[in-house]
Specification:
By secondary structure, the chain is an alpha/beta fold. Helix content is 34%, strand content 21%. It has eleven helices and eleven strands. The protein binds zinc ion.
Length: 313
């Protein structure tokens, strides 16, 4: 995989001709959406964009997007998601409470983890989001994780990375660095997009998650393989979430009544504009129904997101 360059020197498109996760020779084209061309790896089953639209994505995340404002609008929904993710971590113990959140956004998860007893550090490339996390009182390593230098390698008991893996142009380097942050015996917990999800199957390349920002589209096999090659032992995998695409009509109706629901993972302008206090997707009956749906989705591994927990031996 060609190296990551500073935003100003980033070429608009970079051709890979190989799988960015396992390095196998380029697989056949599996679909197109506008200028985006997707391929599937015949060795690890990863779906990935090739060529990679690196220029536009680097400009967005390093210069144009305000991820702090984006996540603020999603705060109440994110709180629900983060609460369940916290329960999937081993509990903090005295002297074993160092947690690093890679792609920490506005620091909301770090703040919730602090309340649960963790001592958190963030890694974030978007300047407004990194600034917001610092305002919350956390140390933040700012910049692209794939090229950061730090003396924090091998010092964390838990490393988390929520919905960030799909945004990196070099997932093999990204995963190797996640593992390197951990001390031996430490735990990694990560979520990303699930390509064989119900939404992925029903909507294909019209799935709202098929976007230039997402360089890779995962499944259980490709994700397990990535972590094993990074020296990690996967312990638990599950999938969750139906996907916003099924609720587009409901979102439109909700808009009219000021209860807009929004894409919990997405970068849609609608999400950024939603009022923080008015959401249908945090209402108690909705959450109750969602738990039932998630049980079915997990049994069939067709949730829109895939979550994995792995241990560094
Ligand atoms: Zn591959």
């Amino acid at each position: 995989v060609p190296p990551v360059l500073p935003a100003a020197q980033q070429p608009e498109f970079v051709a890979l001709d190989c799988c960015p996760a396992c390095g196998s020779p380029g697989g056949p084209e599996s679909g197109r959406r506008g200028a985006l061309e997707l391929h599937v790896c015949s060795a690890c089953a990863l779906v990935y964009s090739d060529p990679q639209p690196r220029g536009i994505v680097a400009r967005r995340y390093l210069e144009e997007y305000d991820l702090a404002a984006h996540f603020h609008a999603l705060g109440r929904r994110k709180k629900v998601l983060f609460e369940s993710r916290l329960t999937e971590l081993p509990p903090p113990r005295p002297g074993r409470e160092a947690l690093c959140d890679v792609g920490c956004g506005d620091g909301q998860f770090l703040e919730m983890a602090r309340s649960a007893g963790w001592s958190g550090t963030g890694i974030e490339l978007n300047p407004p989001a990194a600034a917001r996390t610092r305002e919350r009182g956390f140390k933040v390593l700012e910049g692209r994780f794939e090229e950061l230098s730090t003396d924090a390698w091998g010092t964390f008991d838990v490393v988390t990375s929520w919905d960030s893996l799909e945004h990196t142009v070099d997932p093999a380097e990204f995963a190797a660095r996640l593992a390197r942050l951990l001390r031996p015996g430490g735990t990694l917990a990560l979520t990303t997009l699930n390509m064989p999800s119900l939404a992925g199957r029903v909507f294909g390349t019209r799935w709202s998650m098929v976007a230039p920002d997402h360089f890779t589209y995962w499944n259980e096999q490709s994700l397990r393989g990535l972590l094993v090659r990074s020296g990690l032992s996967p312990r638990a995998v599950h999938s969750f979430g139906v996907g916003r695409d099924f609720f587009a009509p409901l979102d439109r109706v909700a808009d009219r009544f000021g209860r807009r629901g929004t894409d919990p993972t997405g970068m849609t302008p609608a999400a950024a504009g939603a009022p923080a206090g008015a959401r249908w997707d945090v209402l108690r009956p909705v959450l109750w129904a969602e738990r039932g749906v998630n049980r079915f989705l997990d049994r069939t591994r067709t949730g829109v997101g895939i979550a994995i927990v792995a241990v560094k031996e």
